[in-house]
Amino acid sequence: MPRSQNKVASHRRRKKILAQAKGFWGRRKNLIGVAKHHVDKAMQYMYRDRRRKKREFRALWITRINAAARLNGTTYSRLMDALKKKSIEINRKVLADLAANQPQAFAEICKLATA
Predict the structure, then answer these.
(1) Are 72 and 106 within 8 A, CB to CB?
(2) CATH number, domain at 22?
(3) Which of 42, 47, 71, 83 has the most CB atoms at less than 10 Å from its CB?
(4) Looking at the 3D structure of the chain, how many domains does it have?
(5) Contact (Cβ atoms closer than 8 angstroms) between residue 104 and residue 73
(6) Full-prediction pTM beyond 0.90?
(7) How confident is the model at residue 45 (pLDDT cuts 50, 70, 90)?
(8) What is the pLDDT of residue 6?
(9) What does the pLDDT look like over 50-79, one tens digit per residue?
(10) How does the average pLDDT of the chain come out, rounded?
(11) C-alpha dihedral over 70, 76, 77, 83, to 10 degrees?
């Protein structure tokens, strides 16, 4: 009895990997063995960087808040401590946006917190 190979499923599986490798450079896009390796590596980078992105944005927000706070005569840590003590719940993303786009509003928040 001849061996069954399930050609349809294996072809679909390989086609899926090559579709994911679309846009890769050189043999990475059209040789299944090389493409599989590079698609797997790309998936690892995607997983890692979805988490890293959150860290990088938080660091950016903190940098922006600190720069704006220093223009208003305080530091980042003193401002955040004052906001916490006054029970002003405003997150870093919004604070950074205010610092960059609406400096007057940020200055009012600084006055309110440090008063």
Answers:
(1) yes
(2) 1.10.1900.20
(3) 83
(4) 1
(5) no
(6) no
(7) very high
(8) 87
(9) 999 999 999 999 999 999 999 999 999 999
(10) 95
(11) 110
CA–CA separation, 55 and 83 (whole Å): 22
pLDDT of residue 3: 85
Instruction: Confirm whether 56 is domain-assigned.
Output: yes
Contact by Cβ (8 Å): 95, 82: no
CA atoms of 18 and 87, how far apart (whole Å): 54
The Cα 108–Cα 114 span in angstroms is: 10
- Please give the residue range of the domain that contains residue 65: 7-114
